[in-house]
Amino acid sequence: MELLLQGLRKAIEMILSGDPVILEITWRTLKVSLTAIMISTLIGLPAGMMLGLIKFPGRKLILTLINIGMGLPPVVAGLWITLLLWRSGPLSDFELLYTPTAIIIAQTLVSLPIVTGLTATAFQQINEKLIMQIKALGATKIQLVLILLKESRLAILAGIIAGFGRVIAEVGAAMMVGGNISGETRILTTSIVMEVSKGNFDIALALSFILMTIAFLITFCLTYLQQRKRSQ
Amino acid sequence: MTSLITIENIEIKAGDKPILSVPRFELRQGEVLGVMGPNGAGKSTLLKTLALLAPPGRGSVFFQGQEVGDVLALEVRRKFAVALQQSLLLDTSVYHNIAIGLKLRNRSRKEIKEKVAYWLEVFKISHLSKKHAYHLSGGEAQRVNLARAMILEPEVLFLDEPFSALDFPTKVQLLKDMKQVVENTKTTTVFISHDLVEIKYFTQRLIILMDGEIKQSGPTAEVLSSPNEAAAGFIGEWSELLS
């Protein structure tokens, strides 16, 4: 208990003192995680919509692979990306290994199946007669898609929230492809692991409180967006 | 009466199974047409074909004598309105549900506001305007559904069993109100129903659809009192029940 309180005190102290290292790590964490979830949403939303609405050969196989992908261990994703970006790997020319971009790629890889899969499920659940009714109201194809997006916003935002939860908490892949380099690729989760390994439990706890606060605030905003106007 | 919608050589199949086979059929301007038939007879498929919500297979659909291809489909479809058995309202207020068709047509806010107010009044649901559509009773939701269709001032109104899920007193009241609306607006209407009483009360002409084919067509009273051999089995069972 004493350790927890000490950690909390340390967290407040670190935030109030404006510790530049902490601010830098926090900012990088936010930048990397929000970029990754944004990319996942930009790819996963249209892909999930297509998979949910359009029936084509191989659709079930793709959905199965996406569902498997939802359980993809981050370290495995990290390993694949490391191999791809490694000096002798096929994408070595880009020199992305041990950069924040590599972490974004890894986090996108682990969150993309979640956003795509849950979006596809949301669209599969749409009553076909609702689609017919919207068309009958005179909707163009684009208008139809926009209405369906609005109608499915609860489930879509649930997918984005779940995906964000995955990226903000992710450590294995970030450690592997980012290398936890001070001032370059260190983010909150990798810092916590490092501080624990050094025996600095108070700092680790302080960092964990900052991480939880960020996760809480962003999830709260997404949940607010998801639930607004529902209580009328 | 002139023909408003004509369909020709419609052959729709699900796999090898024929769903709808209609060599020629005309929907006449200003009429209220009833469509009856057992489950799986092809009634909804006929509605979807007439309302341009499903491709006509190898056949053709004509609106006011002009064949409707892909290019014209949306333009012509916007002259129609459809209300289905399920009200299928959107996740928003009653007001916005009724306004949606006009919004999709980019009408001005002023026009939308005036027309929504008018149709809320006609369907006696002005007090529900701000209520969320998911908090309505079955009868209220169906009134919103019908107002959402009528606000479009359609040249053809398609009703697919809109009263079938309602309790008896609600159904009777809504049926009366809807008949009044259709008569006042002189809207050409296609009304699918399983209920002989609804058909008798609401429609002027009736077609009996069985196994995807029109077995009989004529004035409603005539078809019901003198069904031909093919339709007799279906109509006869109903008449027996009512007598």
From TrEMBL, chain A:
InterPro entries: ABC_perm_TupB-like, MetI-like, MetI-like_sf. Gene3D superfamilies: MetI-like (1.10.3720.10). SUPFAM superfamilies: MetI-like. One of its GO terms (biological process) is transmembrane transport. It is a multi-pass membrane protein. The lineage of its organism: Bacteria, Bacillati, Bacillota, Bacilli, Bacillales. This is Tungstate transporter permease. It is found in: Cell membrane; Membrane. It comes from Mesobacillus campisalis. Keywords: Membrane, Transmembrane, Transmembrane helix, Transport.
Automatic annotation (TrEMBL), chain B:
The keyword ATP-binding applies. It holds the Pfam family ABC_tran. It comes from the Bacteria. SMART domains: AAA. This is ABC transporter. It comes from Mesobacillus campisalis. Residues 5-236 form the ABC transporter domain. GO terms for molecular function: ATP binding; ATP hydrolysis activity. Keywords: ATP-binding, Nucleotide-binding, Transport. InterPro entries: AAA+_ATPase, ABC_SmlMolc_Importer, ABC_transporter-like_ATP-bd, ABC_transporter-like_CS, P-loop_NTPase. SUPFAM superfamilies: P-loop containing nucleoside triphosphate hydrolases.
